[in-house]
Model the fold of this input.
Amino acid sequence: MVSIEELKEELKTILDDHRYIHSIGVMESCEKLAKNYNLSEEDTERLMRAGLMHDMAKHMSAEESIKYCEDNNLKVDYIESVLPSLLHGKIAADMCKKKYGFDDEMCEAIEFHTTGRMNMTIFDKILFCSDKTEERTRDYEDVEHYRATPYRDLDESIIEIIDYIIDDAVKNNRVFHELSAQTRNYLLLNRQK
Ligand SMILES: [Fe+2]
Ligand SMILES: [Fe+2]
Done:
């Protein structure tokens, strides 16, 4: 499989500096959380690759994103058609599969890093939390609190992050993807007590 160093070199040519540094931060957070949850060395490396490349389509315009989905037979739902920036996870997953041979577990974590989904895998959960709490670029009120939670409880971290996203969307009169609401409800109802 393509090395992390090669992926970094390629990513540097695709993303601007801020997004590149964010990607490095996500990869580092994935590594720390994978170790915290005793993932094998091999799984940790696969998760780090997924973390590094999760935003590789973030630079694409709305038109480019829609066109990529049409050309590659990726389904675009109603909310995504209104907010095509939401497609960057789905597109990055497709690119990583075709270009670098990432497996399904890696690609699905990339695909759902923005919204979450019901019945998330450990890869999905760690990448989701890393994306919102990495240490290099994420900076918002109470970030230290949000950064600590995934080390204690991944499900609780996802719930509090989605609560924040929904709260922010409501306050600013913006839409949020229904998968986020489904993810939150699923975790609330199914998390281990
Ligand atoms: Fe993203
Ligand atoms: Fe991201």
